[in-house]
């Protein structure tokens, strides 16, 4: 990994507090972390390891493969509500759901959007295969969603030709991307954004350094780092209030020209953020 990445400390007061509040959950969590780390030792390549973990998760329980199984319904509802109510996603808009997984969020979005306006993309062929099954189960084939398996984040897949998304959405995806992948994504996302389009991504926000979580598949990023990388590709990054069910943070990226044209924008570093639709929010 090229960027300066620090391993999450073994002990944090926040984790200790959670363990005291719920010892059974803490034991389960530690077991799961140890199992994942043990698995990781078997792979040199992070991506290979990640794909294998996703595959076994999808085979075992698709709900648990994309996050805490008990949050499946809430995460599904929240994605739809956030996109429609907060970003203003309209039925005739085009959405690119990057890292769509098994379509936990995708199913109600396919249902909501006009036919052919939903594109889902994921690195895991296993997650996409399960997502296709869900499309059929929900009777949504007529909505003609495009589901694409990608190998990198350069958006060169032929099925993306001509895609101009009003919104690119990456829910719980940057949280799993190592720094080189986040940089590749920010260098190329403009290829699939419509003029004035916005790219929303949930993140784990860290204070100063990039942190690799001890569960083996999680990364935390400082906002300043994301801003710097975004700036290198003429994008502007702003935090967004999002009330995430699993306590993630959110950032919106958009082309700098468009951002600068919006007079309500504050200069970088000021102590306010934006609501998803562009209203200022005090953090
Ligand atoms: C935690 S799941 C979230 C899935 C979905 N966004 C949701 O909220 O249900 C993360 C997803 O990101 C996908 N992913 C990870 N790295 C990726 C990459 N480089 N390109 C595309 N998808 C990726 C994984 O395969 C997985 O399906």
Which bin fits the share of residues in helices?
Answer: 25-40%
How many domains comprise the coordinates? 1
Helix/strand/pairing category = alpha/beta
Instruction: Give the mean pLDDT.
Output: 87
CATH architecture: 3-Layer(aba) Sandwich
Number of strand segments: 12
β-sheet strand percentage: 15-25%
The CATH class turns out to be: Alpha Beta
Small molecules held by this entry: S-adenosylmethionine
What is the CATH superfamily classification?
Vaccinia Virus protein VP39
Keywords:
10-stranded mixed sheet, binds S-adenosylmethionine, 12 strands, two-stranded antiparallel sheet, alpha/beta, disordered C terminus, 10 helices, 283 residues, Rossmann fold
Give an overview of the whole structure.
The protein has 283 residues and is α/β, with parallel strands linked by helices. It has one domain (5-266): 3-Layer(aba) Sandwich (Rossmann fold). The chain has helices at 13-21, 23-40, 46-60, 62-65, 72-86, 106-112, 125-137, 179-188, 223-231, 256-261; strands spanning 5-7, 95-98, 118-122, 146-149, 165-170, 193-206, 210-212, 219-222, 235-239, 249-255, 272-274, 280-282. The strands form 2 sheets. Strands 1, 2, 3, 4, 5, 6, 7, 8, 9 and 10 form a 10-stranded mixed β-sheet that branches. Helix 7 (125-137) links the parallel strand 3 and strand 4. S-adenosylmethionine binds next to strand 3.
